[in-house]
Design a protein that fits this description.
The structure holds two protein chains of two kinds. Chain A has a domain at about 90-270: MetI-like fold (Orthogonal Bundle), CATH 1.10.3720. In chain A, about 75% of the residues lie in helices and about 0% in strands. Chain A is built from twelve helices and no strands. Chain A has helices at about 1-30, 45-55, 60-70, 90-125, 130-140, 145-160, 175-200, 205-210, 215-245, 245-250, 260-265, 270-300. Chain A is flat and about 85 Å long. Chain B has two domains: about 10-235 and about 495-520, D-Maltodextrin-Binding Protein, domain 2 (3-Layer(aba) Sandwich), CATH 3.40.190.10; about 270-490, Dipeptide-binding Protein, Domain 3 (Dipeptide-binding Protein, domain 3), CATH 3.10.105. In chain B, about 35% of the residues lie in helices and about 20% in strands. Chain B contains 17 helices and 23 strands. In chain B, the strands form six sheets. A seven-stranded mixed beta sheet of chain B has the order 8-9-10-1-11-19-12, with helices on both faces. Chain B is globular and about 70 Å long. Classes of the chains: A mainly alpha, B alpha+beta. At the A-B interface, helix 2, helix 4 and helix 6 of A face helix 7 and helix 14 of B.
Chain lengths: ~300, ~525
């Protein structure tokens, strides 16, 4: 009962957070200089007609009220620039489906590789395998996405010609998946390793060993489970960000995902798309954080949600 | 033995299946090309002819729709959906008769009313090219289903260029009214009267255009499927080109251009001028209303150095018009007109600039007011800083600050600046397009006005005789050189990657790329 009450409270807080995000984003967006109809050949007269057509000549608070009203009805408006005339909800739905498809693959790769290699490194502290994993993860974590993407493209697509450059060709998802998974994999390796090292020094494990429990049970049943708590904390926002795609991977490999819109909607002043992706992404983050809190409780019943 | 039997049976079945396919179909399928090209990003890809304004969107629209004229294989305008054009003696009335074999992709005939609706819709949409037709035409009507009459305010020899421009293409009223802003935003949201029909559009990724069998010239065209990759990343476009995934890219990273020079990179006239614009409007600093100041600032620019900094094969800017336009004698217009300054004597130009500035009352830059020089990206900022440095070194002016303006286009068109980057990309290959840019207040963000210039421009556009036209345009150049509303810095070149080893007949005109006529070598 207490848990349910807490979850309801958290959902209420999430709605308030979302409202605050929508409001702040809307007003900040309107502070940006320019409008969606800036172009080399646009005349002042035509720009004025277009601005009026979409109601952008009205006071910002009126535009805000209209946006909120439409949003509550599920109408996010249509794109002014990026996919001119298409409903923002359709754009998000289509591109999120692609990002999610790629993101799930990258997420699975990151979790499997990150947790397993991190555990190996932690359990074999200061052994050669620990050293190799640490060096590789340090390199991976410090390499910018576009370097990874370019290197993969030059080696695998241009020189060896084993994979296509673009996403829509067979096997086209492999390189963007690796690019997208690289940073979280390396981060998870380090996180898991650090967490395992911390847990392995806990008194209760010494007690368990003293009681005669096998090392396998000590490590895999008790130590690993508890060491996953910080990993789960990271998995919430990671899932939200990886599922919504990455700007670099999507741009370089021409993935028709959502990630590109975080940047391109702002640079092109596509107001409705800016708001749409903000609402969608923040809802996802809030939801993932909520799920993480519930997962804590499952992993460690001592944690109270209060 | 069993395996041999199976193989033999399979071969027989395959042989029978193949023999049942008519030879003509096989030959036809074998002839049609399936090509992939990279031609712009999703955000540039608007194929609604009334609203599209980017080179990428215009290029794509040229494949799907067609006007009374089209850009032919030669790169010049030729009759498209019109079978004939009759011009009245005074040159003010053009009567077009439509072909009798033209249809939309849903099988309905293309009618004169579709054109009239297209023209009206263009004006109503109020987008970048909404005045391209009203700039020359005073009215249009369709006396019957196959006839269109366009009335002009003044004779206009370049009307075919305007009517070959996608903004003046027809549109189907039922589709435009049904889909509104989403017209042509998805394949099923429009019908097409061009050589291709859009069959797929995976947004942000690829458009697929398929050749129309009922297009009147279908038999002459070899491209069967045109896959249009949508990307804004030059490196991935280059990688796709080098890996053989695409045969054309309008993007190539600048630093890779030297390497690609003999590997498919082609430079073409950019049909644009790159200028420094001086605001003579009410909100510009008064100092720029003094022609001596403007001329001094122009003369002091070390253009050769800027071209070296950019390293993009630019041509020196010494006329408003760019190169690439020749008369019957083969003389390029830039050689025909008088240069704005002595291109071989930068030192002399600098001395003259100092004198002019002193005449204006700012000897050695003393007392020169603070000016705001706005640009819209980092590349242009680099050039602007080089120019400001010239003004400081040569003229002693150190009060000009360069600013990357997030609201650049709005500020420039509103006149809330002192000095700005300005460049005019020609829309079609007629000199009038370049000279019109500084003639009308719509695009003339310098707020420059000259009766003499207006008269010379009007005289040039009114005559169909090229020799006479060129004389008037030469006069336009002389007036601009004297008034210096802008300082022309350079004429940029366009470049693209094309697999000219395996393919030929790409049409590249004013930055538009047309794959309709592409053939295998």
């Amino acid at each position: 009962m207490q848990t349910i009450r807490y979850i309801v409270k958290r959902i209420g807080l999430a709605v308030i957070s979302l409202f605050a995000i929508v409001t702040i984003t809307f007003f900040l967006m309107n502070l940006l200089p320019g409008d969606p109809f800036m172009s080399e050949k646009a005349t002042a007269e035509n720009r004025a007609i277009l601005v009026a057509k979409y109601g952008l000549d009205q006071p910002v608070y009126i535009q805000y009220g209209r946006y909120l009203k439409n949003l509550l009805k599920g109408d996010m408006g249509t794109s002014y620039v990026l996919q001119k005339g298409r409903p923002v909800a359709t754009i998000i739905f289509e591109s999120f489906a692609t990002s999610m498809q790629l993101g799930v693959r990258a997420l699975v790769l990151a979790i499997v590789l990150g947790v397993s290699l991190g555990s190996i490194a932690g359990l074999r502290k200061d052994k050669p395998s620990d050293g190799v994993i640490r060096v590789l993860s340090s390199i991976g974590i410090s390499m910018p996405g576009y370097v990874i993407a370019s290197a993969l493209m030059i080696v695998l697509a241009v020189n060896l010609k084993v994979l296509p450059v673009t996403y829509n060709k067979p096997g086209g998802w492999i390189m963007p998946m690796i690019t997208l998974a690289m940073y979280p994999t390396c981060y998870l390796i380090r996180l898991t390793r650090a967490s395992i090292l911390e847990v392995m020094n806990q008194d209760y494990l010494t007690t368990e060993r003293a009681k005669g429990m096998s090392e396998f049970i000590v490590v895999f049943v008790h130590a690993l489970k508890n060491s996953l708590i910080p990993v789960i904390t990271y998995l919430g926002p990671l899932t939200a960000s990886i599922l919504t795609g990455g700007f670099v991977a999507e741009t370089v490999f021409n993935v028709p995902g959502l990630g590109r819109y975080f940047v391109s909607s702002i640079s092109s002043r596509d107001y409705t798309v800016i708001m749409g992706v903000t609402v969608f992404y923040s809802s996802l983050i809030v939801m993932m954080n909520l799920l993480c809190d519930i997962l804590y409780k499952i992993v460690d019943p001592r944690i109270t949600l209060e | 033995m069993k395996r041999w039997n199976k193989t033999l049976s399979a071969a027989l079945v395959l042989g029978m299946a193949l023999s049942s396919v008519p030879a003509s179909v096989m030959a036809e399928e074998a002839e049609k090309l399936d090509i992939t090209v990279a031609g712009g990003s999703e955000d540039a890809m608007d194929v609604n002819t009334a609203t599209t304004s980017t080179l990428e969107g215009l290029s794509a629209a040229r494949h799907l729709f067609e006007g009374l004229y089209k850009i032919g294989e030669s790169g010049e305008p030729e009759l498209g959906q019109a079978a004939s054009a009759e011009i009245s003696e005074d040159g003010l009335t053009w009567t077009f008769t439509l072909r009798d074999d033209i249809t939309w992709s849903d099988g309905q005939p293309v009618t004169a009313q579709d054109f009239i609706f297209g023209f009206d819709n263009l004006v109503e949409q109020a987008d970048d090219y909404s005045s391209i037709l009203t700039g020359v035409a005073s009215g249009w009507e369709a006396p019957d289903d196959a006839t269109i009459v366009i009335t002009l305010a003044n004779p206009c020899g370049f009307l075919p260029s305007v009517l070959a421009f996608p903004s003046t293409y027809p549109a189907r009223k039922d589709y435009v009214e049904q889909y509104g802003d989403a017209y042509a935003a998805d394949p099923e949201n429009a019908v097409y009267n061009g050589a291709f029909v859009m069959t797929e559009w995976e947004h942000q990724s690829e458009m697929v255009m398929t050749a129309r069998e009922d297009y009147y010239d279908a038999d002459k065209l070899e491209v069967g499927t045109l896959r249009w990759m949508l990307t804004s990343d030059a490196s991935s476009a280059l990688a796709a080109f080098e890996s053989g995934d695409i045969i054309y890219s309008d993007l190539c990273p600048d630093e890779e251009k030297p390497r690609m020079m003999d590997n498919g990179l082609t430079f073409a006239p950019g049909n644009m001028n790159y200028c420094v614009m001086f605001n003579q409007g009410p909100d510009g600093n008064d100092v720029l209303k003094d022609v001596n100041v403007r001329k001094a600032l122009s003369l002091a620019i070390d253009r050769e150095r800027i071209i070296a900094i950019r390293d993009l094969n630019d041509e020196l800017g010494f006329t408003y018009m760019c190169s690439g336009f020749t008369n019957a004698d083969g003389t390029d217009f830039t050689e025909y007109a008088d240069p704005w300054y002595d291109v071989n004597d930068y030192e002399g130009n600098c001395e003259k600039a100092k004198e002019l500035l002193a005449e204006a009352g700012y000897a050695n830059g003393e007392g020169f007011p603070s000016l705001r020089y706005i640009v819209n990206n980092n590349d242009r900022k680099e050039v602007a800083e080089s120019i400001v440095n010239d003004w400081k070194e040569v003229l002693g002016i150190d009060t000009v600050t360069v600013e990357t303006d997030d609201n650049f286009f709005a500020d420039r068109s509103a006149g809330t600046y002192d000095i700005a980057y300005y460049g005019w990309y020609m829309d079609y290959t007629d000199l009038s397009n370049m000279f019109s840019s500084i003639n009308t207040m719509d695009t003339n963000n310098a707020f420059y006005s000259s009766e003499a210039y207006h008269a010379a421009y009007a005289a040039a556009t009114a005559t169909p005789d090229q020799a006479e036209q060129w004389e008037h345009y030469k006069e336009c150049e002389a007036i601009l050189a004297e008034d210096a509303p802008v300082a022309v810095v350079l004429h940029a070149m366009s470049s693209y990657l094309f697999d000219d080893v395996n393919y030929k007949d790409l049409v590249y005109s004013c930055g538009n790329y047309i794959f309709t006529y592409v053939k295998a070598v």
